[in-house]
UniProtKB/TrEMBL annotation:
<dbReference type="InterPro" id="IPR019169">
    <property type="entry name" value="Transmembrane_26"/>
</dbReference>
<feature type="transmembrane region" description="Helical">
    <location>
        <begin position="201"/>
        <end position="223"/>
    </location>
</feature>
<feature type="transmembrane region" description="Helical">
    <location>
        <begin position="65"/>
        <end position="84"/>
    </location>
</feature>
<protein>
    <recommendedName>
        <fullName>Transmembrane protein 26</fullName>
    </recommendedName>
</protein>
<keyword id="KW-0812">Transmembrane</keyword>
<feature type="transmembrane region" description="Helical">
    <location>
        <begin position="36"/>
        <end position="53"/>
    </location>
</feature>
<dbReference type="Pfam" id="PF09772">
    <property type="entry name" value="Tmem26"/>
</dbReference>
<keyword id="KW-1133">Transmembrane helix</keyword>
<keyword id="KW-0472">Membrane</keyword>
<feature type="transmembrane region" description="Helical">
    <location>
        <begin position="12"/>
        <end position="30"/>
    </location>
</feature>
<feature type="transmembrane region" description="Helical">
    <location>
        <begin position="140"/>
        <end position="159"/>
    </location>
</feature>
<feature type="transmembrane region" description="Helical">
    <location>
        <begin position="271"/>
        <end position="292"/>
    </location>
</feature>
């Protein structure tokens, strides 16, 4: 029974990954009005191959320090988000009137438009396509960002645990994912809204940093660790590997790059407002506290040796 549940979760999670990626490709095709973008579905093939290999060789279980399914899911959907973001930044000044999903009334009106009497599958799909096409491009992109991050958290929860990964480590990892997802979503939504029409290069920088920060989700080194090896080794790197990796992630993958981008937006591009300053200070504090944490780890690691030398 347990094997059947794991097998089902492994398949269902990857099918959801493919479905969301397919929605992203469909949206790109609608926005660009070009059928050639359907070829982006070939990016799903590595995820399908990984699913077959994992189900056959590992019975659906994920790996300990790295998740190929999440990594391949990111590869399949990130290009669609890049295209949508760049297209929106280029055409947002000429976007027609659209329906924002910022109120319950707008959402109800969107759903009510889909009611058609004596509808067939073709008419239903046609009305659904017309209703979805009236949604504002920015809301579409934001929804994709939100669904992507939520699915990464739920997907990691549903994927069968790899060998050696405990429930405690998985719960810690999921909590880290929640905090990371909130910071990443805030970074993309707030920072991209500050971009002027005359600074397209900043859009590339923000999207590149966003893509770089998403690499935290396939990696599990900040929590998962071999405790037996850590206890038997005197090396600083092995004894505090989880703490050091967590510091590295913050400094070089998330808060460090986020701080640099926000400082660039404020100084070079002249954008300055209350929320931007607040989050820049927040990133700065996290960076400083991580350096302090690294200093404390090094001091605690050296302290036993200095005491032994003093006794001698």
């Amino acid at each position: 029974m347990g094997f059947l549940v794991q097998f089902s979760c492994a398949i269902i999670t990857r099918l959801f990954f493919i479905l969301i990626s397919l929605i992203g490709v469909w949206r790109v095709k609608i926005v660009k009005d070009d059928d050639i973008y359907w070829f982006m579905t070939f990016l799903f093939l590595p995820l399908v191959v990984e699913m077959v290999i994992t189900l056959q060789r590992r019975k659906g279980q994920d790996y300990k320090w790295f998740s190929p399914a999440i990594f391949l899911f990111l590869i399949s959907i990130i290009p669609s988000i890049w295209i949508l973001e760049l297209h929106h930044q280029q055409t947002k000044s000429s976007d027609p009137q659209c329906k924002k999903l910022d109120s319950l009334e707008n959402l109800r009106s969107l759903i009510s438009n889909e009611t058609v009497e004596n509808r067939t599958i073709q008419t239903y799909l046609k009305v659904l396509d017309q209703a979805l096409s009236t949604v504002c491009p920015n809301d579409w992109i934001l929804s994709l960002h939100q669904v992507l991050l939520i699915l990464l958290i739920i997907g990691k929860w549903l994927l069968p645990r790899g060998g050696g990964v405990t429930r405690d480590e998985l719960s810690q990892l999921l909590l880290i994912f929640v905090g990371t997802a909130a910071d990443i979503l805030e970074f993309t939504s707030e920072t991209l809204s500050d971009v002027n029409e005359n600074s397209p290069q900043l859009v590339y920088v923000i999207l590149a940093v966003w893509t770089w920060s998403m690499l935290q989700f396939p990696l599990h080194l900040a929590v998962v660790n071999s405790k037996t090896e850590s206890m038997s080794s005197d090396s600083l790197l092995t004894k505090h590997s989880t703490d050091i990796w967590s510091i590295v992630e913050s400094l070089f993958i998330q808060d460090g790059p986020f701080l640099l981008v926000r400082l660039t937006v404020m100084t070079y591009f002249g954008v300055f407002h209350q929320m931007l300053v607040f989050f820049a200070i927040k990133n700065f504090l996290v960076v400083i506290l991580n350096f302090y944490r690294l200093f404390v780890i090094c001091q605690d690691y050296r302290r036993p040796f200095t005491r032994e030398e003093a006794e001698l």
